[in-house]
Amino acid sequence: MATNFTTADLIDDHGDTLRSCSTQFRLYGGHEVFSGPIRTVRCHEDNGLVKQILNSPGEGAVLVVDGNGSLRSALMGDMIAEAAVRNGWAGVVINGVVRDTVALGRLELGVKALGSNPRKSLKDGAGRQDVPVTFGDVTFVPGEWLYSDHDGIVVNETRI
Question: Span 68-81, mean pLDDT?
């Protein structure tokens, strides 16, 4: 996981080849700068697939979760995030909310989400994984590369 970049410098160096996410996320994880190949989940108020994927080898990837922007229930908390750390994930970006935010801040994991809500989500496993997901004017395609820091998130077709 490269951390010797800034998204602003990447935009300056690569211009329009990079896609910049317009969604205004909050930082929650202990790693504020993170990058990696994209994996995806599309789900709505159900974190069963998120848990399943983050309990598998991450190999430095970033899981992008499209929770449809719902603020009603958390799609990740400290236990799932701890599994992500154990399994080698670089980060998680959630178009939705998280919980256990103090604990998330202690973990060696990049975490961005819209906000927090202590309410648990459903656990049915409804949704789809490793499909393109779109939010914030960006389509996140599995296998492409995500770079995240304090200024935002940029995506490129290949590793920079």
Answer: 98
E strands, 13-144, in order: 19-20, 26-27, 34-42, 62-66, 74-76, 91-98, 110-116, 128-129, 133-135, 138-140
pLDDT of residue 106: 98
Give the C-alpha separation, 127 to 83, whole Å: 20
pTM to 2 decimal places: 0.97
Q: Taking 70 as the threshold, does the pLDDT of residue 2 lie above it?
A: no
35 contacts 9 by C-beta, under 8 angstroms: no
Q: Report helix, strand or coil for 61.
A: coil
Confidence (pLDDT) at 105 = 98
Burial 122-152 (b: 16+ CB within 10 A, else e): eeeeebebeeebebbebebbeebbbbbbeeb
Q: What are the beta bridge partners of residue 152?
A: 149
